[in-house]
Structures are given as C-alpha cells and as structure tokens.
Design goal:
rod-shaped, 6 helices, about 85% helix, about 325 residues, about 0% strand, two-stranded antiparallel ribbon, mainly alpha, 2 strands
Length: about 325
C-alpha cells in the first residue's frame, strides 16, 4: 500500500508515528497518544493525535493482509512479522472489546446523564410552569391594576372637568358679584347723596318751620297784646256804655278764645312738625343702617367667594350661592 508522507508542523512525520505505534503494539500495549509520544520522545498531542487516528484507520486492512507493507522513504515495502500480526490481532480484539465496554459505559453514563438532564428538565419545566402561572397571575393582577388606574384616571379627569366648570362658574359669579358690588356702591353713593340732599332739605324745612313757628308766635303775641290793649280799652269804656262794653267784652272774649284756639292749633302744628322731623331723622338712621348692613353683607359675600376660590373642596354649587344671594337681597 502506497501512502503519502505527511509531515507535522514540528518535524514529526507520519511514518515515525506509525512506527512508534507498531512498536507499542508489539510490546503488547494499546497505542495511545501519550505512549506514542513517550516512544517518540517528542511531538505534541495535537500533532500525534490525527496521525494515530490514521494508523488505527489502516490497521484493519493491514491485519487482513499481513503481507501489506508500510511505505518507507525509499519506496520499498516491508511485510509485517507474523508475531506482530498476531499481537496486532490480539490487540485489535482487545481494543474492540475495550471500545465496546467503553461505549457501553459511555452509553450507560450518557443514559444516566440524560436521565438526570430529563429530571432537571422536568423540574425546570415545572418551575417554568409555576413561573408562567405566577407571571400570568401577575399579568392578570397588573391588567386589573391598570384597569383600576385607568378608571381612576378617568374619574380624576371627570373631577378635573367638574372642578374647571365650577371654577369657571365661580369666576363668572365673582365677576357678577363684582359688577353688582360696583352697582351697589354706585347706588349707595347715589343714595348717600340723596340722603344728604334730603338732609339739607330737611334742615331747610326745619329752618322754615322754625321761622314760621316763630313768626306765628310773634303774631300771636302781637294779637294777645292787641287783645289786652283792646280789653283795657273796653274796660275803660265800660262805664260809658255798659251794653256796648258787654258786647265788646263778649266779642273780645270770643276773639280771645279764637286766638287761644289758634295758638293751640299752631302749637299742635309745631309739635307735629317736630315729630315729623324726628321721624325723618329716624328714617334716615334706618336707611343708613340698612345701607351699612347691605354693604357689610356684600363685602362678606365677596370675602367668602375670595376665600373659597383657591381650594376645590370649598367651591359651593351655583344654585346654593344664588339662593344665598336671593335670601340676602330679600333681607
């Protein structure tokens, strides 16, 4: 058999490895990489291994044809000796038996490993199933939590919209209240000016009434004086004309009674005017008190609205505020 010589990267050649393997086989030992390297005294396992595999590959053919030769450098064929062939056959049988035993052991070990791996895989599958169930439960809980969160977000959005609407209503109410307050202030100013004008008119009327009463009093005093003078004159004439004096006296007395009645009427009118003046003052005081109370109520409403605007919980519905405003107006 012709074989191409393969040279190793470190100088170890194929025929050297084969010759070393034959020598080890001739010693009755199984050629291994370490034994061949010990026989050679050099060579790395990476280099000797592939060459030894080639030696094993050609060993069967060489055992079947003992006359086969190993290729030498000079091309000559050298037959294997009969003892080497017998030893090789015996070694080959032992190698086959050892290979079978090793294969059986490896198969058993592989089965054990596979059983262990299968058990580990089954346990891993169980753990994976448990984790999958846990993940499913967590996913379901997460979905429920997300649904609850979405519901909360929707509710918060609805509340925000309601609060915005209430805020807009409150701002509109505040603007209306400010406008009404401005109108009330203008009305209060107008009412104050009217009251001042009325007070001036009342003072003027009082002055006129006082002047009128004084004039009437002076007129009454003058009438009384004239009546007295007339009574004196009539008394002096009494001696001359009794009848005329009596008639004059009666007329004088009647006139005096009329004058006294007129004086009483004038005094009653004066008292009525004084009473009307006091009533006008009381009415002015009542109007001022009502005006101040109305202004105080409006400022209280404004302060309450201002205090309630910054916080959303203190915003009252529009209907209640309008009802309160209506009750304040009615009061």
């Amino acid at each position: 058999m012709q074989s191409k010589i393969v040279r190793g990267p470190r100088g170890v050649q194929m025929e050297e490895v084969w010759a070393a393997a034959d020598t080890v086989l001739g010693l009755g030992e199984r050629p291994t990489i370490e034994r061949v390297r010990q026989q050679l005294g050099r060579g790395s396992p990476n280099t000797v291994g592939p060459m030894l595999d080639g030696w094993y590959g050609s060993l069967a053919k060489r055992l079947q044809s003992p006359v086969d030769a190993i290729e030498q450098d000079d091309g000559a064929e050298v037959p294997l000796p009969a003892p080497v062939v017998r030893a090789a056959k015996a070694m080959w049988g032992r190698a086959l038996q050892h290979a079978d035993e090793r294969a059986t052991a490896q198969f058993t070990e592989a089965r054990k490993d596979l059983s262990v791996q299968a058990e580990a895989l089954r346990q891993a599958q169980e753990v994976l199933a448990q984790e999958t169930q846990c993940l499913a439960d967590r996913s379901e809980a997460y979905d429920m939590a997300m649904q609850a969160r979405d519901a909360q977000i929707a509710e918060m959005g609805r509340l925000v919209q309601e609060l915005q609407q209430q805020l807009a209503g409150s701002q509109e109410m505040l603007a209306t209240s400010r406008s009404e307050c401005k109108q009330l202030r203008l009305a209060a100013d107008a009412e104050r000016r009217r009251q001042e004008e009325m007070e001036v008119d009342r003072r003027g009327e009082r002055t006129r009434l006082e002047e009128r009463a004084q004039a009437q009093e002076r007129r009454l005093n003058a009438e009384v004086d004239r009546a007295r003078q007339e009574s004196k004159r009539l008394a002096l004439k009494l001696e001359d004309d009794a009848r005329e004096s009596a008639r004059s006296l009666s007329a004088s007395l009647e006139k005096a009674r009329e004058l006294e009645a007129l004086v009483g009427q004038l005094q009653a009118e004066n008292a009525g005017l004084v009473k009307d003046l006091h009533a006008a003052r009381d009415e002015t005081k009542d109007l001022r008190g009502k005006l101040e109370q109305r202004s105080t109520e409006m400022f209280a409403v404004l302060y309450e609205l201002r205090d309630r605007l910054p916080t959303s919980d203190s915003v009252k519905p529009i209907g209640k505020t309008r009802k309160a405003r209506a009750s304040n107006r009615s009061s």
